[in-house]
Automatic annotation (TrEMBL):
Domain called RNA polymerase sigma factor 70 region 4 type: residue spans: 131-182
Family assignment from sequence similarity: Belongs to the sigma-70 factor family. ECF subfamily.
A Pfam family per the record: Sigma70_r4_2
Keywords in alphabetical order: DNA-binding, Membrane, Sigma factor, Transcription, Transcription regulation, Transmembrane, Transmembrane helix
SUPFAM superfamilies: Sigma2 domain of RNA polymerase sigma factors, Sigma3 and sigma4 domains of RNA polymerase sigma factors
PANTHER family reported in the protein's UniProt record: RNA POLYMERASE ECF-TYPE SIGMA FACTO, RNA POLYMERASE SIGMA FACTOR HI_1459-RELATED
Residues covered by the RNA polymerase sigma-70 region domain: 24-91
Organism: Breznakia pachnodae
Name of the protein in its database record: RNA polymerase sigma factor (Sigma-70 family)
Residue spans crossing the bilayer: 249-270
């Protein structure tokens, strides 16, 4: 069971028995304190806000309808607590709430050991961690937020967008600005001190460094569970029960009203002599974080829609699995109002899409949309990876992307290996290997490989 599944199970357990809240507390307290500290940059204030946020989570945990998305719900709640504090106290440093400026000021830090006389491969990770932590602290808040969620929590752009209430473009912009800001600080430090911190980009190590940073600042605080703050009383239980009951009752009433309206419309429509077409009927559709079509909402004939998420050059292979075998003439797939060709094999539909955008599946009177946004002719594309003899071999499509070999790495068991131009990395690799490919525009894409 991975960490996300474990957290989901704990949330379900606490929802069934609030007396088990300490289980959840131990899992999330460091995350919440670090998130508060990331926003307010003050130990004491962060600790007070952490307590306030934890009490709110305790009171509202029963209202979480999708435990698998608890982390996103939690980060959004905690962020609201912190922002409300900043607004009430009207922090004078405008930088905190508004700025995305690249320019930063920071105190000069002296490194213990001069690095210019050492081989680049012999870098000491501990030696640079504290400097990078300081550089992260120097980032404007909006950049720190995105950097933290993307690298520490490994969240996707759409998840970060939901938490921060930004559109995806703004998230990507702040992520890019944060990277640039860090690289600028590193470059300025190296030039000022005539020292080489690292043989290439530090970005692939940000997740490790942020986790270490989180542990550092949390270990300095007394974040132990205080049972007196989370005591269940009969009144609170009754309040939560009535609150949940009222919410469910409101949903039931709303459903009855909607059904009544629909029924009335149908009756009125049937009473008319003109023939009414229902070909424009559109059902609800939704996608989870793996890009899979959610079975609980949507097309009555569609089981799921699957495709690879990582960037592709030529197009995306899409598979549509049907619940029942239907005739080909019963289904159309449209893009920009043009009908696309596809192959059908009993319950499976195979389709090659070559442009980003919204695709529409039409069957009988139902319509369902799915969106493709990961076709990029300039993306560094990892086609295949496999172990052969004493090497890990990468097959990469680099005709358009112009890969920057000085910055492209693989990370395995805490070690970083530069990717050579022949794409052969010496060593025997098993388990999870992270591949990071940079191009000369300083964009990069990460792939997680699992050699079981």
């Amino acid at each position: 069971m991975d960490k996300k599944d474990e957290l989901t199970q704990i949330v379900k357990t606490v929802q069934e028995d609030i007396g088990q809240f300490e289980l959840l507390y131990s899992q999330i307290i460091n995350k919440i304190y670090f998130w508060c500290y990331t926003i307010v940059k003050d130990d004491t204030t962060a600790k007070d806000l952490t307590q306030e946020a934890m009490i709110q989570i305790y009171k509202k945990i029963a209202t979480v309808q999708q435990p698998e998305y608890f982390s996103s719900w939690m980060y959004k709640l905690v962020r609201n607590v912190c922002y409300n504090h900043l607004k009430v106290h009207k922090r004078s440093d405008k930088l905190v709430l508004d700025s995305d400026d690249y320019t930063v000021k920071y105190e000069q830090t002296v490194i213990e050991e001069r690095r210019d006389s050492l081989p680049e491969e012999a870098y000491n990770l501990q030696e640079i961690k504290r400097l990078i932590k300081q550089f992260i602290d120097n980032l404007p808040m909006k950049q720190r937020e995105v950097i933290t969620l993307f690298y520490l929590e490994e969240m996707k752009i759409n998840e970060i967008s939901e938490i921060l209430n930004y559109n995806a473009g703004s998230v990507k912009s702040r992520l890019h600005a944060g990277r640039k800001n860090l690289e600028l600080q590193i470059k300025e430090y190296q030039e000022r001190n005539n020292v080489k911190l690292y043989s290439a980009s530090i970005l692939p190590l940000l997740g490790v460094i942020l986790k270490d940073y989180q542990d550092d600042i949390c270990n300095k605080q007394n974040l132990q569970y205080d049972k007196s703050l989370y005591t269940v009383s009969n009144n609170s239980l009754l309040f939560n029960f009535l609150q949940m009951l009222s919410e469910k009752l409101a949903i039931v009433i709303a459903s009855i009203v909607v059904v009544g309206v629909i029924t009335a419309v149908v009756i009125i429509g049937l009473s008319n002599q003109d023939t009414n077409k229902v070909g424009d009927k559109t059902t609800l559709s939704a996608f989870n974080d793996q890009g899979m079509y959610q079975k609980s909402k949507g097309h009555p004939y569609i089981e799921d829609i699957t495709y690879l998420e990582f960037p592709m050059r030529e197009g995306i292979d899409v598979t549509i699995k049907l619940k029942v075998d239907i005739e080909e003439t019963d289904m159309k797939i449209l893009f920009n109002n043009e009908e696309l060709s596809f192959e059908k094999n009993q319950k499976d539909i195979y389709l090659k899409v070559r442009e980003n955008g919204v695709y529409t599946i039409v069957t009988d009177e139902y319509k369902t949309n799915f969106e493709i946004d990961n076709i990029d002719i300039y993306a560094p594309e990892l086609v295949e990876a496999f172990n052969e003899d004493e090497y890990l071999l990468l097959v990469i499509n680099d005709e358009q992307s112009q890969i920057d070999f000085q910055k492209s790495f693989i990370e395995w068991r805490g070690k970083v290996y530069q990717i050579p131009k022949d794409y052969k990395i010496k060593g025997k690799f098993d388990g999870v290997v992270k591949v990071t490919l940079f191009n000369y525009n300083e964009d990069f894409i990460e792939y997680n490989l699992d050699f079981k």
